[in-house]
Amino acid sequence: MTEVRRAGAGDAAVLARLLWDFNTEFETEVDDVDVLEARFARILELPAVLAVLAEDGPDPVGFALVTLRPAIWFDGPVSQLDELYVVPALRDRGIGTRVLDLCTALAREQGSPEMHINVDEVDVDTRRFYERHGWVNVEDGTDYRMLCYVGPTG
């Protein structure tokens, strides 16, 4: 039975390996696991960072990372689902839904009224997953999609 729980800094190595697996699966450039582990260990000590880990017995099978930021439009923080991954062999078994549910519950406990995620337009399966869970890219009262842009800082 897969267990889903909040992860902590002690889970940094497992989370780093899962993130590395996620990025290499999609042939995305990624830092070495030891670099990711150090970053996870550092950021998971921050109160504005939440991580969720799914485990099937001793085996890690999925994770998510959520960050919180202050927002002018709400009394609570806006949450950003930065990563959500389930190992390929176990997809379509409800693990991603359980991870997402815990993420939203943890964010709600922190006073977050909404959560954001960026999804590549070509990633139809991922878009379908989030849409099935009530996520939208067209806000009520509009007829146009929301887009995310990435820009340089230096």
UniProtKB/TrEMBL annotation:
Keywords for the protein's UniProt record, in alphabetical order: Acyltransferase, Ribonucleoprotein, Ribosomal protein, Transferase
UniProt GO molecular function: acyltransferase activity, transferring groups other than amino-acyl groups
Pfam family, one: Acetyltransf_1
One Gene Ontology cellular component: ribosome
The organism's place on the tree of life at top rank: Bacteria
Annotated ranges, domain N-acetyltransferase: 2-151
InterPro entries referenced in this protein's UniProt entry, alphabetically: Acyl_CoA_acyltransferase, Bact_Acetyltransf, GNAT_dom
Protein name: Ribosomal protein S18 acetylase RimI
